[in-house]
Amino acid sequence: MQKSFTKLYAPWSVMLLLLLWATSADAQQLMVSSGNTSREAGSVPLQQMLANLETRYGVSFNYAPAQVAGKFVTNKNTRGKEADLEAQLRKTLLPLGLQAVRLSEHDYAIRSADAAPATNIKAAEQIVKGKVTDEKGNPVPGVSIREKGTNNGTATDAEGNFSLKVAGTNAILVFHYVGYQAKELAAGSGLLLVQLSPEVRSLDDVVVTALGIKRQEKALGYSIATLKSDQVNTVKDVNVANALSGKVAGVNVRSTSSDPGATSLVVIRGQSKLDGYNQPLYVVDGVPIAPAVRAPKQPVGQVVVDYGSTISDINPDDIASMTVLKGASASALYGSRALNGVILITTKSGSGAQKGLGVAVNSSALFDRATLFPKFQNEFGAGDRTGSDETISEASWGPRLDVGTKHVQWDSPLDANGNPIPTDWVSYPNRHKDFFRTGSTLTNNIAVTGNNKDGNFRLSYTNLANEGITPNTDLKRNTINLSAGYTLHPKVRVSTNIGYTKNTSNNRPTYNRGSVSSIVYTTTPNVDIRKLRNYWIPGKEGLQQFSHVPGSTDNPYFVAYELTNGYNRDRIMGNVELNIDITKDLTLMARTGMDYYSEYRESKRAFSAIKNPNGGYGIETETFREQNTDFLLSYKKQVNKDFFISVSGGANRMNQSGAGTTQKTESLVMPGVYSISNAKAGTVFNDSYRFTKRINSVYGMGQVAFRNYAFLDLTARNDWSSTLPPENNSYFYPSASLSLILTDMFNIKSNILSFAKVRANWAQVGGDTDPYSLYNTFGFGQDWGSVKRATIDNALLNNKLKPLIATSHEFGADVRFLDGRLGIDITYYNTINKNQILRIPVTMATGYSNLLTNAGKVGNKGIEIGLNATPVKGAFRWDLQVNYTKNRNKIIELMPGITNYLVGGAEGIRFQVAEGTEMGDMYAQNWATVPDGEFKGQPLLANDGSYQKVNDYVKIGNYNPDFMVGITNTFTYKGFTLNLLIDWRQGGKFFSYVAKNLLSDGRTQTTIHGRDPQTGGLAWNDGTYNRTDGMILFGYVEESPGKYKLNDVVTDPENYYGEYYWSFNSRSTFDASYVKLREASLTYNFSKKVLGRAPINNLSIAFIARNLFTWTAAEQGYDPETAMTIANGSFSPGVTSWGLPYTRSYGVKLGFNF
């Protein structure tokens, strides 16, 4: 391991040495005419030069035509060598009596140079005063004012007034306020009256697109969505994928658990692949990384462990933006891996930071409380059945509690003869809450930035310490990230980004049967769970646990502390990128990037565990490495005043490799000695795997822009995949998109209609399969004593496989009104996936159970609507964002001769599809019904009054929502900002195995009815005793052929609820609709006036919360969002099975700079 990491670090270390802070060489200056209108030989109009800079740097210049008319610039063999845009503008404009003022990140205004040139003599300090108003002349409080290039700053008071001591009259003040364009002004010597202009959103915003290329959003012919840094890390989640929930139209995020380290599944524009893997590709700083979702593990025994998504290794504090490429046109350039969409993550860098050194500190503390539980009953205690004297049981059919009686129970003391003594029969209604603790996540981040004219860097360190709500579960993470860039030559720039993450945990939460949740939830009401904390029987420590149901149920604290599943993961991600300006129009980008992780997992099972009475031990290792090397040659040219063209071509080589080993035993010799060497002879299971994969690709793209209002984009890519047969391993896919800015096309100048754009696109994307899917080979199985066994897959593999093909088209419009105060974006899409690679059942006469082949065509179509509005402006401001998503999919065809296909299953639920059905359909066995007559469709019972099952499976629902809505409200007043995110999902179903289990064993309030006369029980005789707990199942019994009567057979509550709930899963299937207050934050930014002479800047404190409020349509105490179980080595949405309870999180965040 150490040797491997040394090899990995070596190239990065060399790169860092090249990026050491150094002084820059003087660049030749751009020669310009000195303000006269005479034109020198080789000169170009100033207006043309500014247009070239707009194209090259992705910025926009605002100026009056008269300002630049008749002005020319010349180029004496040094054109384009200056890499710093602002420096180049100064050298170009000052001799012309002009200056460029930066309004926002990508917008500049050209105006007269009203400040005298700087001299080498330091100007005297002075106090500058002024007032800031909005476009209507109203004062604007809370405006941030900073002296450019320093940490010196202040903010306006309630009347918009400010006062700030600056270096002198030449100092530049930067004014910034949310919702308004940033403004820069010279301090001067008089009173400053500053008027801010509203920010017209996204008219010329620059966004990151495929391959890391920055484009103007208005030029895109497809829909994308971008989250800025504050949208990701204000209310931070341990898993950054969860930051997308409720914020992006078309994106459905499902978490496997409420534990912060749990896996999250992200689906963009619906499920399209029948093999179940519908996760997007994640790209960090232009480099694809490892698949975010891995198979859960079943290490030793019956429990399953989720070791989390690898995407959670990305530190939220290091993220500058997240961009979702939804459709095939947006993601086509990433090839087959982008079949399910792409999420681009851009990390922070030192570029754009203040000159010199700066330090930023951010700390947060978030606390988790389990708040949503099933509606447990606390009126009846343990018992196998009503009326029974057996009161030590897992079931809750025992005598009524809290009525002054005494019974023998689990903790009864023994008399002199060793007989248990009856004790008070009382309830403990908080038993489940008493077990779970308050979880916490403490995050501390410090980042150091440096910036000068030649280079920049950002070095960040983050420490995360999480303690779960389950005792003895934790997660620790340390992250170091370095971003650096350096201008080696005016035409040559090099940059790198390297991140290292270390994850460790002594114990991760478990799921399914045998987990602590299953034990706590099934603990009977008469058990005080706190008495189980001392989980060893005195005198038998390390040998025998103390349990409330000996022999059948583990002590939950014993499970938490003695059946542990620890792991550690080392991960390094990084890239080196070189950019060369070959000419002013031709550039070359070359890049190589790597993602590598190594994970070690260790599971321990103490003696006396129910499933491992002789203990157990297991170790697993897993390594993964992916390297991407690519280049892109780009040519951009403003052909004339009407046409702009951009053409790019490139190639990529992706190499993947991975390996893993497993060693485990379910029987140890010595208790408490956790080593494979301590395994009982003949009980060790060994397994290993190794794989490699390569994809070679070439691609190209071109854009034609006409008068900056019509944009046509074409792309093409060809992949060669090592996982497909030679005759089919090459697949080509193109795309085309068109964007028209109608307001510019028809020269619409209106305060009502600010902006109008329509867009359309068409694209194809190909897909391959897993390595080694072409030919059947033998593998080693578990040894049979001393005999080595070889096995072969029960699937017949196929060396004629073809690539999967997805074809998509999309139409959309973006319209904004009232100077950008109201905007609506609407998108319609339709995608068809064909040639899916599936395992189709075949007759066993072939010697195989299924065949790997191309089959299936799945369609997805839907609509996405985004609404942006500013209902209130002024001292108090209200910003509103709403996104709406509705997706429908359909199985268009399977394969000739195949009427239905079993996608998967869990806990008696089948996920199967047939032509005309939908992905996500859930099927279960149903009860027999009356076939005809007046009672047709009613339950048909057997003569003994019990339900009868039918063999056919019937649809009981679909786990996908009918639609999703996200609503973000931001309220700003003075220094306060209140942000509320509401996440609403309507429709869909989920099956709860937990509910089925609790209902059938008398553990919830629903099962109280009928237990005694007080609760509606009927008088009856069971053949031996007279009882008063009778119940009658509703249904009809066939008296004679074709004649039915209402059932009148009496049974006891255990059989009644067991028949009603345990036998039929549809009765534990609920509406999955919910509304959550997903995020809430109240932030106060301290002004410089408040801070006084304190050596810190930009101090803010925020009160933060997640899932502060939840409404569920089911109202059963189960969280539909985490309706996820783990079966057959994969996650199955739509089914809950002994996961952790729903949690509410709240805390505080502090940030400042110095």
From TrEMBL:
Domain TonB-dependent receptor plug stretches: 220-342
Keywords tagged on the record: Cell outer membrane, Membrane, Signal, Transmembrane, Transmembrane beta strand, Transport
Xref: InterPro entries: Beta-barrel_TonB_sf, CarboxyPept-like_regulatory, Plug_dom, Plug_dom_sf, TonB-dep_OMP_SusC/RagA, TonB-dep_OMP_SusC/RagA_CS, TonB-dep_rcpt-like
Residue stretches in coiled coil: none
Keyword Phosphoprotein included in the entry's annotation: no
Membrane topology category: Multi-pass membrane protein
Entry's Gene Ontology BP terms: siderophore transmembrane transport
The keyword Transport is assigned to this record: yes
Gene Ontology molecular function, alphabetical: siderophore uptake transmembrane transporter activity
GO cellular component: cell outer membrane
Compartment(s): Cell outer membrane
Signal peptide start and end residues: 1-27
Sequence similarity: Belongs to the TonB-dependent receptor family.
PANTHER family: HEMOGLOBIN AND HEMOGLOBIN-HAPTOGLOBIN-BINDING PROTEIN 1-RELATED (PTHR30069:SF29), TONB-DEPENDENT OUTER MEMBRANE RECEPTOR (PTHR30069)
NCBIfam families: OMP_RagA_SusC, SusC_RagA_signa
Protein name: TonB-linked SusC/RagA family outer membrane protein
The species this protein was found in: Chitinophaga polysaccharea
